[in-house]
Specification:
alpha/beta; 20% strand; globular
Length: 330
């Protein structure tokens, strides 16, 4: 039998969530509030789209936390703050937020003697590759986002290594979807609403993914181990292809959608012709075309060994998301 992880403990002291107004941060705070954790503090440069009752929302920039102080014990820090959209930012912006943010968060942790940090990295640290990637696969980031996230991991690792009382959970999520996501799955649902979907180049591209509620479960279960350092991939065991994902969406909400395929050479030719205006948002960005046709083949080896639910979750997750969005994938 697979081992079953204990339920995560209610920790005395505050939880400070950097990036708490964002997608994952909001869900994390909601989960902690629902189980009675507290006090809960969010630090973000933005106002929350889905504010959680009882959370103290502070405006702060993760790139400079020198003036931020919390008067009281802090049980854990969750560092979810990041610049992540690719393409979409100048190269320096990824390092400015993701690397400087990691330095500032760990300095804040030292100043307040925080014993636990939860950090969201990314599968981008593995680099684009059709081959499956487990937690022991060597990182090989190619994008500035992936490189900045690997550097941020190393900064958090250094913090964990410097004191036996420090505990670090690092998660490398695949595509995360759910209420408030506003990303890949939301865009896909809006295309499907129109009644026609064109597969970009190929139908068998693997797109590893995880529902945000499952991601929070896995993070809290990893924390419950209370190990010095836990690193894990967050993705379902099923090798969901883009065709599988579209099929699940059609089954759950869009049964009348018609699907077609557009050959890869046609897409690449269009991207090449429209490259001069892609930066203005008027064309097809070549990097985005390449991402659509490149698999993210991620293995959740740690989660499987820990006995977590890693299989056959996509359809149920889409139904839950739709229900929480009152019939829409908001």
């Amino acid at each position: 039998m697979k081992p079953v992880l204990p339920d995560p403990p209610l920790r005395p002291g505050a939880t400070v969530v950097f990036g708490g107004a964002g997608f994952i941060g909001s869900h994390f705070l909601q989960r902690l509030a629902s189980r009675g954790d507290g006090p809960l503090v969010s630090v973000d440069i933005r106002a929350p789209r889905y504010p959680v009752a009882g959370v103290r929302y502070l405006t702060g920039d993760v790139r400079d936390l020198t003036q931020l102080h919390y008067d009281g014990a802090i049980a854990r820090i969750a560092n979810f703050a990041a610049v992540h959209t690719t393409p979409g930012h100048d190269p320096w912006e990824y390092y400015d937020t993701n690397v400087r943010g990691a330095l500032e968060v760990t300095r804040f942790a030292r100043r307040h003697s925080v014993p636990q940090i939860l950090f969201t990295s990314s599968i981008s640290v593995y680099g684009p590759d059709e081959r499956p990637k487990s937690e022991v696969s060597p990182p090989n980031p190619q994008s500035d986002y992936g490189k900045s996230k690997l550097m941020a991991e190393q900064i958090h690792d250094s913090w964990a290594a410097e004191n036996a009382a420090h505990h670090l959970v690092t998660v490398r999520p695949a595509v995360v979807f759910g209420l408030g996501e506003g990303g890949n799955f939301t865009r896909l649902s809006r295309v499907l609403e129109k009644g026609v979907f064109v597969f970009p180049g190929r139908r068998d591209t693997i797109k590893s993914c995880i529902y945000v509620e499952d991601l929070i479960d896995w993070i809290l279960k990893a924390e419950a181990l209370d190990a010095r350092r836990t690193l894990f991939n967050a993705a379902y065991t099923n090798r969901y292809t883009i065709e599988d994902i579209v099929t699940m969406f059609r089954r759950v909400a869009f049964p009348r959608v018609r699907v077609f395929s557009l050959p890869a050479p046609v897409l690449r030719a269009a991207a090449h012709c429209l490259r001069p205006i892609s930066g203005a948002g008027l064309g097809i960005h070549p990097d985005r075309i390449d991402k659509l046709m490149t698999s993210t083949n991620i293995l959740p080896t740690w989660a499987e060994a820990a006995g977590l639910t890693t299989r056959d979750r996509l359809e149920d997750a889409l139904r839950d998301w739709r229900a929480k969005g009152n019939g829409a994938f908001l």
